[in-house]
């Protein structure tokens, strides 16, 4: 199968190692992976701010770059959900509809398409998982705790098979970190307090690392951790799944 690697602009600019880890991991799992060099922002920041009508250029460019692949895979639940729900092109709507169904978040692709149950790796650290809202409530990567239903988590399923990892169970498994894209700018004080509360749960469990499927949420938490001079670090799940010993 051919995979087009969709890397969010903030990952490309600030966390290129996450993109590299995603590429290497997919290759290890037997995929033919290409990174379209002309890809740009998917348009999510504009859409979240009420300017979806200005994202037509982003949509056109996305279709131009990714239409030839069997699957489109991205290490970001929020960007994937945006494409799934908002990719349109009035001149190529049938193609856009097909592509909306073919874009996947990384752990979703590994578990649901590749049907991989475990990945060989070694990460001898105590780790807490942050369940990002877009991934959990939009892509259904994990079960919401308020529902009277069996709990599941695709990211946790993969991480639990990594050698030497000590995966903790948090007191509030699916609480928002407060990032919310432009929300952290327009409601800075509320956003920071939510992030501090999210970190406190991990601190109480004595974690070494906070991981997740969205580097944007982890970026928000990392900023708070550094300001608090906390020893806790953040790491994207792709880096753990692709790692030997870190």
Automatic annotation (TrEMBL):
<dbReference type="GO" id="GO:0005829">
    <property type="term" value="C:cytosol"/>
</dbReference>
<dbReference type="Pfam" id="PF02754">
    <property type="entry name" value="CCG"/>
</dbReference>
<feature type="domain" description="Cysteine-rich">
    <location>
        <begin position="127"/>
        <end position="222"/>
    </location>
</feature>
<dbReference type="GO" id="GO:0016491">
    <property type="term" value="F:oxidoreductase activity"/>
</dbReference>
<feature type="domain" description="Cysteine-rich">
    <location>
        <begin position="3"/>
        <end position="83"/>
    </location>
</feature>
<protein>
    <submittedName>
        <fullName>Fe-S oxidoreductase</fullName>
    </submittedName>
</protein>
<dbReference type="InterPro" id="IPR004017">
    <property type="entry name" value="Cys_rich_dom"/>
</dbReference>
């Amino acid at each position: 199968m051919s995979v087009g690697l969709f890397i969010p602009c903030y990952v490309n600019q600030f966390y290129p190692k996450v993109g590299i880890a995603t590429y290497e991991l997919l290759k290890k799992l037997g995929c033919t992976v290409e990174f379209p060099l002309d890809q740009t922002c998917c348009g999510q920041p504009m859409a979240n701010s009420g300017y979806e009508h200005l994202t037509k250029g982003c949509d056109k460019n996305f279709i131009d770059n990714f239409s030839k692949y069997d699957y489109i895979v991205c290490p970001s639940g929020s960007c994937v959900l945006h494409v799934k729900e908002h990719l349109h092109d009035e001149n190529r709507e049938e193609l856009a509809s097909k592509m909306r169904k073919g874009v996947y978040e990384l752990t979703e692709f590994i578990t649901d398409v590749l049907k991989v149950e475990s990945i060989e790796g070694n990460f001898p650290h105590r780790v807490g998982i942050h369940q990002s809202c877009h991934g959990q409530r939009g892509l259904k990567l994990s079960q919401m705790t308020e529902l009277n239903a069996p709990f599941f988590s695709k990211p946790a399923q993969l991480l639990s098979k990594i050698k030497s990892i000590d995966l903790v169970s948090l007191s509030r498994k699916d609480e928002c970190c407060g990032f919310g894209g432009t929300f952290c700018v327009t409601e800075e004080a509320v956003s920071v307090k939510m992030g501090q509360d999210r970190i406190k749960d991990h601190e109480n469990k004595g974690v070494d690392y906070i991981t997740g499927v969205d580097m944007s949420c982890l970026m928000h938490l990392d900023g708070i951790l550094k300001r608090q001079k906390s020893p806790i670090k953040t790491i994207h799940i792709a880096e753990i799944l692709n790692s030997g010993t870190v």
